[in-house]
Design brief:
heterodimer; A: alpha/beta; B: mainly alpha; 73% helix
């Protein structure tokens, strides 16, 4: 039994050792498997091959990355980590603490990442001061999308404050139109919640509450006001919302069944794919209030043995942050490049707005990580908050109760 | 030599599966118990840190919801499946002509995957697409059937789909039991002029006690491990209103990177299973000794 295992292991070792003569090698674990995303991943793969590398694709679909994470856990536990893995936010540091990430500072410094990436986004890519991941894009989460024809027909402007939004929504309700297209899935509830929270708390308190988990801010009266607004939002949603996927909600806005949707800029991909034009058929604006919530996809580099694999890792990191890939990939995906020096000529007006706002908020300190998309907190904490948000949204819980529950849940998750 | 073989072959044949069960069932139960006492997050760690995970578990409102859902779902699912199954079996047992066809029809849902059942019922019960929209389309505008999207009623929607799936199977069990009852006793009772309902309640059903027990055990473990039905039907929603312990454990282990918490919930689930199975095993073993 033991000997067979040994024989099998050496056979695998031999098989792995055989192509050692080849150039840079990379095995990449990701979950970009759907239409536009798969196309984007293929761009990187092609560029990697053009530079003489051998790419081993390891796409794991399902569960918004849950399945890929399970595969990653198995690979790491068996001591055979992939070269690069699609990871984001604090999960990068969490894996670093397990002692399995590689240091790619040499590439980062040679390429001058520090100068071209916004400071707060660069921080996510560093583990104790060393670069350990490469950012791919910046999704903005706090977008509000609207059907242009519906707004015009009802004489409504894009809302600048939440009072504006409520007034507009009430007007639409009277006209028999669903004001807010929403899908009742926990992460979508959380997406709306954080957009509302950013507007009502303001960037300063948002950071305190959802990045630093400051108990006083979590229990404050302003947080109760956030839940009050969420209760209003619940009233603006149609009856069939539970379980609806986000792209179905987007098509409600497209077809004029609903006026607004609060969703990240991946929703733009749906509009564009349906042949709609920004500014003409649909409108994009940041949700009322200051700040910019980002969701950055990135690749973390894992510790690997062998020069060819390390060379592959360096090449991959260089290409990912390279201007060419950043442009092509983000055109496909609907997001904007993470590096600020990419020309945006080919991008649409929404992307221009996003890029401008990103620059402005980076300057005034309101460029903030999205909690709902796993950028601000670790899984256990963000999950605990989402539980409260979705429980409140789907019941008649009072705001005071919700605030108390929020504080308890966060304390319990630490 | 042959004698030695004869004596030892059974043991040798059984040894691999015995070892496999030892490692993969009991070994991993022990591993889970160990991990549930640690502060494991993304990857398992092995430094024991007391009962912290159990404290967190019992402090989590979501776990309370999951356990009370299991209780509601389990009780109703078992009870309604048994009652419906028994009624169907008794009706089918009236020597009707197309029994074979009907039996197959009732048994068929069991052949479907729970994912299929869940998805189909999700559509049937969706107020905008299914039953409610249809009946309203006929002109009954006040008809409402929105259990699947109502946080207080959603768990009963799960019960409906579960019962639909399982009651045919229970019917088959009971039908076999009914056929096993001695016909002579029934005829004797009929000769004595005892009404049919009395024959059922006083003679046939009591003599089927072992079948009730088997049906109960099968349904109970279906209820405790049900996961795919909830995932397909409601995704645990609205909110987490239809979360069950199994979906809670999955979320903690695979979405949130909180392995210690998942392990502790798995241990509590195992405790629930033991609470049902141990008395059964005990009664079985005692029956044999008598």
């Amino acid at each position: 039994m033991k000997y067979t295992a040994f024989a099998a292991a050496s056979a695998v070792a031999l098989a792995c050792a055989a192509p050692a003569v080849a150039g840079p090698e990379a095995e990449v674990l990701h979950w970009w498997t759907s239409g536009g995303e798969a196309k984007s991943a293929a761009v990187l793969q092609q560029e990697f091959a053009d530079n003489g590398g051998t790419w081993t694709d390891m796409p794991v679909a399902g569960g918004g990355g849950d399945a890929a994470m399970t595969a990653l856990r198995a690979r790491v536990l068996s001591g055979n980590a992939p070269t690069a893995v699609q990871l984001k936010g604090p999960a990068i540091q969490e894996w670093y603490e397990e002692g399995v990430l590689a240091d790619i500072s040499s590439v980062a410094e040679a390429e001058g990442w520090g100068d071209v990436l916004p400071g707060s986004i660069a921080e996510h890519m560093k583990c104790e001061g060393k670069w350990c991941a490469a950012p791919v894009n910046v999704h903005r989460v706090d977008w509000i999308w609207a059907n242009a024809a519906l707004l015009e027909a009802n004489g409504i402007e894009m809302p600048q404050t939440w009072e504006d939004f409520n007034a507009a929504a009430d007007k639409l309700m009277e006209a028999g139109i669903t004001p807010l297209a929403h899908g009742g899935q926990a992460w979508q509830d959380a997406t709306v919640f954080e957009a509302v929270a950013l507007g009502i708390l303001g960037p300063e308190d948002f950071r305190k509450a959802f990045v630093e988990l400051d108990m006083d801010t979590l229990k404050s009266g302003k947080m109760a006001a956030v839940f009050d607004q969420m209760r209003k939002m619940r009233g603006y949603v149609d009856a069939n919302f539970p379980g609806r996927d986000w792209n179905l909600a987007t098509s409600m806005v497209m077809n004029g069944e609903a006026a607004f949707q609060i969703m990240g800029d991946w929703a733009k991909g749906e509009f564009l794919a349906a042949g709609k034009e920004p500014g003409k058929d649909f409108l994009c604006a940041s949700v009322p209030g200051d700040g910019f919530l980002y969701n950055v996809d990135s690749f973390a580099m894992f510790e690997v043995d062998g020069e060819d694999k390390q060379a592959g890792q360096d090449l991959l990191a260089k290409l990912i942050v390279g201007p060419k890939f950043q442009e092509v990939f983000n055109l496909n995906k609907g997001s904007i490049p993470a590096r600020v020096d990419v020309k945006l000529d080919a991008f649409d007006t929404c992307a221009h707005l996003s890029s401008k706002d990103m620059g402005d908020s980076a300057d005034n300190g309101s460029l903030l990580p999205s909690y709902a998309h796993g950028m601000a907190l670790r899984g256990a904490q963000s999950g605990a908050i989402t539980d409260v948000v979705t429980a409140h949204f789907n019941s008649d819980m009072s705001s005071a109760e919700a605030v108390q529950m929020l504080a308890d849940a966060v304390a319990n998750s630490l | 030599m042959t004698e030695w073989l004869e004596r030892h072959i059974p043991k040798m044949v059984l040894a691999p599966s015995f070892i496999a069960v030892l490692v993969f069932v009991y070994g991993f139960i022990a591993w889970t118990a160990w991990v549930s006492l640690t502060r494991s997050r993304l990857l398992p760690k092995y430094e024991i840190d007391g009962l912290i995970q159990y404290e967190r578990l019992f402090n989590a409102p979501r776990w309370d919801t999951a356990m009370s859902n299991l209780f509601v779902f389990g009780t109703l699912f078992i009870l309604i499946s048994m009652v419906l199954g028994l009624m169907l079996a008794i009706l089918l047992d009236q020597k009707i002509r197309t029994e074979g066809v009907l039996r197959t029809i009732y048994l068929y849902p069991m052949a479907l995957s729970l994912i299929v059942t869940g998805t189909a019922w999700k559509w049937i019960m969706n107020p905008g697409l299914g039953l409610e929209a249809m009946v309203r389309g006929w002109g009954f505008d006040s008809f409402t059937f929105d259990w699947v999207i109502n946080p207080d009623k959603a768990i009963y929607a799960v019960v409906i789909a579960g019962v639909w799936q399982a009651s045919g199977f229970v019917m088959a069990l009971f039908l076999a039991g009914l056929r096993g009852v001695d016909g002579e006793i029934i005829k004797a009772a009929q000769v004595d002029g005892i009404p049919t309902w009395r024959i059922y309640t006083a003679i046939i059903i009591p003599s089927m006690a072992p079948i009730f027990l088997s049906a109960f055990i099968v349904l109970a473990h279906l209820a405790i491990k049900s996961f795919d039905l909830v995932i397909a039907l409601t995704g645990g929603g609205p909110g987490y209103a239809t979360d069950l312990p199994a979906t809670y454990m999955y979320t903690m282990a695979f979405s949130r990177g909180d392995i210690g918490q998942a392990a502790s919930s798995a241990m509590v689930m195992m405790g629930v299973v033991f609470a049902i199975i141990v008395p059964y095993l005990y009664s079985e073993l005692r029956a044999k000794h008598d």
